[in-house]
Please model this.
Amino acid sequence: MRGRAVLQEEIVPEVSRRPPAPVVPSTGVLTPLGVDAVSLSGGFWGSRQDLNASATLPHCTDWVYRSGAVDNFRDLPGRGREFADSDVYKLLEALSWESGRRHGDPVLDTKIDELAAVLAKAQSGDGYLNTRYGSARYSDLEWGHELYCYGHLIQAGVARLRCHGEDLLVEVARRAADHVCAEFGPDGRDDICGHPEIETALVELYRATGERRYLDQAKLFVERRGHGRLADIEFGRAYYQDDLPVRDRPVFSGHAVREFYFACGAVDVAVETGDEELLGAIVRQWERTVAARTYVTGATGSRHAGESFGVDFELPPDRAYGETCAAIGSVMLSWRLLLATGEARFADLIERTLFNAVAVSPSLDGRSFFYSNPLQVREPGERPDLDRPLPRSSAGLRASWFDVACCPPNLARLMASLGTYQATTETNGVQLHQLWPGSLSTTFGRIVIETGYPWSGQVTIRVESAVDAPWRLSIRVPEWAHGARLAGRPVEPGYTVVDRRWAPDDRLTLELPMAPRWIWADPRIDAVRGCVAVERGPLVYCAESTSFEVDPARPLEEIRLAGLGADVVGLGARGSGAALPAAMWPYRSERPAGTNTPADCVLIPYHLWGNRGPTGMRVFLPIDRDGHS
Amino acid sequence: MRGRAVLQEEIVPEVSRRPPAPVVPSTGVLTPLGVDAVSLSGGFWGSRQDLNASATLPHCTDWVYRSGAVDNFRDLPGRGREFADSDVYKLLEALSWESGRRHGDPVLDTKIDELAAVLAKAQSGDGYLNTRYGSARYSDLEWGHELYCYGHLIQAGVARLRCHGEDLLVEVARRAADHVCAEFGPDGRDDICGHPEIETALVELYRATGERRYLDQAKLFVERRGHGRLADIEFGRAYYQDDLPVRDRPVFSGHAVREFYFACGAVDVAVETGDEELLGAIVRQWERTVAARTYVTGATGSRHAGESFGVDFELPPDRAYGETCAAIGSVMLSWRLLLATGEARFADLIERTLFNAVAVSPSLDGRSFFYSNPLQVREPGERPDLDRPLPRSSAGLRASWFDVACCPPNLARLMASLGTYQATTETNGVQLHQLWPGSLSTTFGRIVIETGYPWSGQVTIRVESAVDAPWRLSIRVPEWAHGARLAGRPVEPGYTVVDRRWAPDDRLTLELPMAPRWIWADPRIDAVRGCVAVERGPLVYCAESTSFEVDPARPLEEIRLAGLGADVVGLGARGSGAALPAAMWPYRSERPAGTNTPADCVLIPYHLWGNRGPTGMRVFLPIDRDGHS
Model:
C-alpha cells in the first residue's frame, strides 16, 4: 500500500476537475475551456463546425472504411501505408470531441464503440498495436510510424476520457501507452520515432490520468531526439529533427508537421516539469520561424521535397507546400504557448492561420480538401476524380481523399474541438482570444459574442450572467487592428482589459477597422519582390486571374461576389492586364516594355479560392511595371 | 544465303566511314567530326578536357570501385542502387572517348579491358546483365533501371567500337542489345523502362553496326511510351513521360533527365526513319521549353520534387534543381537537333548551357561536383566531407561523389568527347559552331582557331591546309553578339558564311562585342521580378555576396579576380548594401523603406562560384529599391 500512497502524492494534475479540451496544462498562465463550455453559433467558424459534423465526419468515416484503414485492423498484417492506422485514430478523436461538445451523442458514441472494438481485437497482449509490422516490430523506426500512430491513438483516448469517461477506446489507448513506457522506458530501447507525436500525446495522457510515467516517458523522447539516433537519410537528420538537441535548435526546420508536433511535445514537457529553459528554446524557435519562415497566410513548409521548412526568407508562393497538417500543427503549438504565457502574439498567429491556411483546405461542401496550400497556382488544375484518393502534393483542386490521408481527419478533429481555442480563464477573469460569435460558460459567468466578424468589424460582447464579484474581461484586439475602439474609446492591438463587477446584460462593443490593406513583404522574401498582397481584417485575399498588375496607390473597394456565400466581402483592385508577347528566349538585354491596358481585378478571400471550378490563383500581385525599373 | 543478302540491303548506314563521335546520323543536314579530328588546345574547354583526363577520370575510376559499383558485378546480386551499374558504363564510355581522342592509349585501353572482363563474367548466357535483380528480372520496370543501364552500356560499346573496333566491351554491349530486342521486341514484353535511355543508345548501335533491329526496337520503345504502361505513381506518369504519346506532348515535362534522354531517342528515330512529324514534335517541345522552362544559365528542371520541369515560367532561382545531368541531356538533345536542321539556335543553347550550367558542376581541381545547380544560395553551405558520397540535392559546395552518382561520370563522358561538338561538315563545306581554340581536321582542310574566348572577343580562324577547290566556311556568330564584325565587316548573329577557294594560311578574324550586359527576365518569371542578371559574352555572372542591390542605370566595369585563374574577367557593379532591420513579422501594410548605403559588388562568372570556400550566391540581383514602389 505504501507504493500506492507514493504514487498518489506524485499525481500533480487534479484530474477530476479538468475540462474536456485537447490541451489541459497543470500549470501555465491560462486555463482552457472545455468543448462543452463553448458554443459557436453560426458565423464563420460555427457554420464550418456544423459542416464538419454533418459532412466531413461522415465523409472521413466513409473513407477510412473505403481506403482499407479499418480492414487493416481486422486482417493482420494490414496492407495500408505505414501510418494508415492514424487515419482511424484521428477520426476517433474527432468523433470523441464532436460527441463531447454535444454533451454526448448516441450515434457518434456507437460508432466510437464499434471502432474501439475493432482496435481492441487487433491489439497484442502486451499492448502493441500496429497493422503493418506484426513480428517485425520497431524494425524501421525512421519510417515505421508505430509510435506516431500510438500518439494519435492516445490523443483519441484522452478526448474520449475527458468527454465521456473510461471505456474500451480509453483502455486500448492506455494499454498502448503502457506498452510504450515498458518498451522505450529508461531500461528499454534507447530509441525514438521518425515522426514525433507520441511526446505530446503522452503528456496529455499524464494530464488526463495523473500517471507520472507518461510524462517521464515523453520527457525521455524529447531529450533523446537530436543526437543522431535515427539514420542519416537523403533529406538529412533535420528531416525528423534528429540533427540537433531541442534546446540547441535555432529555428524550426525539417519536415514541418514533424517539427510542430515535436515542439508541442517539448512545450508540454516544459510546462509540466517547470523547465523554463526548454520553453524559452521553443519560443525562440517560434519567433524566428514567424519572422522568416512563415507565409502571409500563416502557412509554413516552403518545400515539397521533404515537406520541409526552407531556409530563412525562402518563401516561394507557387511552390509553397504549406501542408494543411502543418497549419494545424502551428495552431496546436501556438495554443500551447498562449496557455503557457498569455501573450497575444500567439493568439494573433492562431487567428491568421485558422482564417487562411486552415480554412482554405476544405471545400464549401466539407467533402474535399487541399493538402498543399500554395499562394500561387499558375495553371488551372484538372477537376479531380472525387471517387479516388489523389497524390498529396497536387493543389489544382480539392480532392476527396489522399494516398497519404493525414489532412482530412486532422481537420475534422480540429474543427470538432475548435471552441476550446476561443477563450480561457485565469484566476482573475476571462480572456477572449478569438472574436467568434457564440457563447462561453465560465466560472465567472456566461458570455455571449455577437458579430458578423470577419466580414464585419463590429463585435458585441454581452455578459449574460456573472458571479457576484468583480472580475477582469480581457479582449484581444488583433495585431492588424490599428484604430480599433472599445466602447467608443481607442484601444491598441493586444489584450485590452475591462475590470468590473459585471451585471447581466452588460455589453461592450468592439469596433475594428475593416478597410482593406495593401501588404508589402520583407525585401528578403525574394520570390514576391515587386508584388503586393491584400488583407481585410484577418483575411488574406487573392485573385483567381493571374495576368494582372495592380497599382497600390489606388484604393481597393468592396464588391459583392457570386457563388461563395452571402456574407462574403469581395474586393476590386484597379491596375492593368498584362498582355505579354511570346518570346523565343525569356531573358533580354532590355528592360521589358509595359504593354498593359487598364483593367479591373476581382479579389476574393484566399480561403475560398478554387471553389467555383478550376482556376489559377495568386496572393501576391505584381505591381504595375510602369512604376518599375 | 538469300536472307543474308536481304539483310545486307537493309543496312543503311555506311558503317565503315563513320567518324568516332557519339552521334553519327545516317541523314540530316550536318555531319559531325570524330573525337580524333578535333584538338582543343588549351583555353576554356581544352584545359577542362585535359583536367578531365588527368583528374576527373582517375577520380571517377577510383569511386566506382570505392562505391562498390564494380564489386556489384563480381558478387551477384549487388548491393548498390538500382542504377549503380550505369556509373561503370558511363565511365567506360568516357575512357573510350578519351582513348579515342588520343588515337589509342595503352593505359586507358587496359582499364577498359579489365572492366569489360568483369562485365562479361557477370552477363547471363542470354545477354541479361544487371547486378541488382537476378531472378526478379524486369519485376519493377518503373524503378528498376535495367533498360536504362543497358543504354549506357550500349553507348559505351558504341564509343569503343568507333574509337577502337570490336572487343570484349563491344561484345558485351551487343549481347545486351540483342537480349533487349529478343525480350522486348514485337513478340516479347510490351513494356518500357521507367528511365528512358535505351532508345537513343539502340539507334546509335544501329548506326554503328548497321543492324536494323536495333533501330526497330528503339522506335518501338519511343512509340510505346506515353500510353500509361507504367504505374501511376505519386509524381504522376508525367514523371517518366508516360502520360502522353511523344507526338502529342506540348512541352518537356516530368523528370528532366528522363525527358532529355527520351527526346534524344525520339530525334534519333525520327532522323533514321525520315519521320518529319516526330522531329517536328520534338522541335516544338524544345521551343516552348526554351521560351518558358529554361534558366538563364541554360539549366532546366525547376523542381527538387521529382527532379522535374515546372510549369511555364516557374523558374525559382533558389530552388532551381538544375541537375548537371539535365544540362548534359539538354546539350545532347540540342546537338541532335543541330545536326538534323543546321539551325543556329540549337548551337546557341549548347554554348550557353556548356559555359554555364555544365561548367559550373566540376570544381577547379576536377575532383568535386555540383549535382544541383541553383541560381541563388541563401546561406553558405558547410564544407562537405570529400571522403564520402553526399545526398544529391545539397548544393552548398561541390561533393566528391553522390549516393546517386550519375553526374560525375556523365560529365566525364561529355568532356572526353567534347571536341565533336565544335564543328561539322556538309557537302559544301565546314561549319564552326563553337569558338574554341584548337584545330579541326576535315575533308575540306585543316582549320586552326586561335582565341582567348570567352574572356576575349577576338577569334582568329586560320586555314592551315585546304583542298584545291572552293568550299564554304560557316561561322556561328552567337545570339547575344549584336555588333560583331568578321574581317572588319558587320555580321549578324547566326551563321555567317565565307565561300572561297582557300589557300594555306588564309585568316579570318571575328570580333565579338564583350561589354557586359544587364539582363532582364520576362515578367512572367515571377521569382526574379525586380531583379537583373549580368552577362558578358556567353557567360552568366553572379555575386557571392547576397545582400546587395544594384542600379542597372550605372555601368558595369571589368576587374581582376583573385584565386580563380589568370584569364578570368570579373565585373564590378555599383549599388547599395541592403541593411535590413529584423522584424517580428515580415509582412507590413507600408512599403518597406530603403535603408541602403552605397556599396560596390563583385560579380564573378557563375560557373566559378563556390570554388573559394563556402559562400552564398545569386545570379539575379535585386534592383535598388529606391527605384521601386
